[in-house]
Amino acid sequence: MFDTLKKLVDADSISGYEENIQEALKKELKKHVDEVKLDRVGNVIARKGKGSPVVMFAAHMDEIGLIVKYIDKEGFIFFDKIGGWDERILPTRKVVIHGSKGSVFGVIGSKPAHLLEKEEQKKPAKLKEMFIDIGASSEGGVKKAGISIGDYITNFGSVEKLLGSKVTGHGFDNRLGCLTIIEAAKGLKRFKGTAYFVGTVKEEIGLIGVRGSAFSVNPDVLLAVDTGMAGDVPGISKAEVSIKLSEGPALDIKDAMSVVHPKVKKWVKETASRNKIKLQFDVMSGGATDASIAPTIREGIPSGAITVPARYIHTPVEVADMKVVESAVKLCVKLAESAHKYF
Ligand SMILES: [Zn+2]
């Protein structure tokens, strides 16, 4: 599983620039399903089985990133954000710019500490003042490297193993979900009905891909398979986030936009307990998943979200526990197997 996760993370992709992850996901899913297709906006739609009930697992493929906004005369590249970044963590990041001549390595520059006034040290840098240095000495040099306004910028780096079954890397939100649906498609053998494993586009910038894909699949139930927030680190209280990194996948009970459908809640809770899968329950004050808007698609699709908790989400050093991914896979398989009893 680690190697597949690495392949998915290494497929540089952010919202709007998703061809690499589409290809990687399609290739992996193809081995385990009856049919895979790409729709017009880039959602990867894989089908296994036929007839009712129809269950759709939706894992968004995109990751937050940056985009080239302006190139100055000295060859420094200014940028804008794509998705929900904490701007404070941007300076000194290593990045890759995807231009017309291939990928170009760069760093987000910052003023050395020696030069900062006392007041400046207390304040985080502003996005509009940040720039990328690719080693060019003029605007012409940047253009010669094939970079122009509107080019996508992705995180640099791969996946690394930490102690035990823990791993770290960027884009775990939501390569963990993509990995889970691949492994669930592989593990699902005997079941009634149809299971769709869908990689959705542009979730991070407005839950976009799920709208068309759920409309065309028209499932009886939709489960988003996403990445959640683990709160068991210094600085986050249990009352704020009670979800732990290694205590199993979580069922989102509530997020900023929606609440879980009662039938979905019953199905997930009972299936987890029947199969002795540790399950956590997440009541979130913020955030949303592809499941949040499913009730507004067609005549309304019952939905819920299963998440793999990760620490430091939306940073390039997200941390996850591969053992929990294994549990999430088992849960998805058991849910697909038991869906006919509920829907
Ligand atoms: Zn996500």
What does this structure look like?
It is a single chain. By secondary structure, this protein is α+β, with helices and mostly antiparallel strands. It folds into 2 domains: 2-63 and 170-341, Zn peptidases (Aminopeptidase), CATH 3.40.630.10; 65-155, Elongation Factor Tu (Ef-tu), domain 3. The chain is built from 9 helices and 17 strands. The chain has helices at residues 2-10, 19-30, 118-122, 139-144, 172-187, 209-217, 262-274, 290-293, 322-338, and strands spanning 35-38, 44-50, 54-60, 65-71, 77-82, 94-99, 102-108, 132-133, 152-155, 160-161, 166-169, 193-200, 221-229, 250-254, 280-283, 303-310, 318-321. An 8-stranded mixed sheet has the order 1-2-12-3-13-16-14-15, sandwiched between helices. A 6-stranded antiparallel sheet has the order 5-4-9-6-7-8, with no helix packed on it. A hairpin with a 4-residue loop joins strand 10 and strand 11 (166-169). Helix 1 (2-10) runs antiparallel to helix 2 (19-30) and helix 1 (2-10) packs across helix 5 (172-187). The mean pLDDT is 95. The structure holds zinc ion (ZN). Zinc ion is lined by residues 60, 173-174, 203, 226-227.
